[in-house]
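Exercise: predict the fold of this chain.
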Amino acid sequence: MLADFVGETGQTADFRQVGYLFLLTTEAERQRFADNMVLQHRLGMQDVHPLTPAQARAMVPGLITDDLAGATFCPSDGLAGPNEVTYGYANAARRLGAVILEDTPLDGFVQSGASVSGIRTRAAEIQAADTVICAGPWSAPVGAMLGKVLPIEPSRRQLFVTDPFDRIRRQSPMTIDFHTSFYFHPEGDGVLFGMSDPATPPGDDVSVDWAFLDRVTAVAERRWPPLLDARVKSAWAGLYENTPDFQPLVGPLQSGLWIAAGFSGHGFMMAPVIGRWLANWMTEGNPSADLAAFAPDRFAAGRLQPERNVV
């Protein structure tokens, strides 16, 4: 969908297929990704392939790979621009008659018996045959307006961007040291990098903790030392919307009410196709794909397929 974005919306997605390179430290990680490749090949992703540590080092000069058990690479993976994709969809939707209300807080839902029939804002009451909760890390308090307990917690992630840096190429892959979650990729003429922090408590704090940069660079020194020669020019923090099994909630909550939230860091990747499937579900009566793993009631039913590859 991102590759065809210009044809669909008339705007660029800034989609660059630089590939994803996963670095695997333990034998268990190497085996897990080997199992992943079997699934990916069965689903048609034939270009995913294993690499030796030496091949990974040749792909990203400066990598330290002596301790690696292996690596995988998919050249058709890539990066896209969140700003470009958001405005591309929004502008195309407006041309088709959609009205987008910004700076319009939700005051509550309109109910007709057991069905949700719209929403209330400070400005107006909006009737709708279908309403979707897709409020990202704020989806749980939105659901609470209807007395629903949605297992979604916000979790801060921080990332850093450097000044122009000639030790990385524009076409260098998104590189992920899976064992530590340290990652980096080209961003403009510089490098964007970050790492998860398991010690971060849930919450909606989006301030930058500059002390965390020291922890990230300590990992970078052991995996990609050239980064230490770069000058950090900016940083920001955003929120993951985590569920207990790191899979999203997608589907009906009650008559007239749906949810698409809790993507646990994978929302930008999954949003285009989830939006299409959910629209098909509403208009055609089926989602055109099996979304049982994302069923909002799966925790109560005990039907879990946890996502294990979360950075």
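Check your answer against the key: Residues 267-284 form the longest helix (18 residues).
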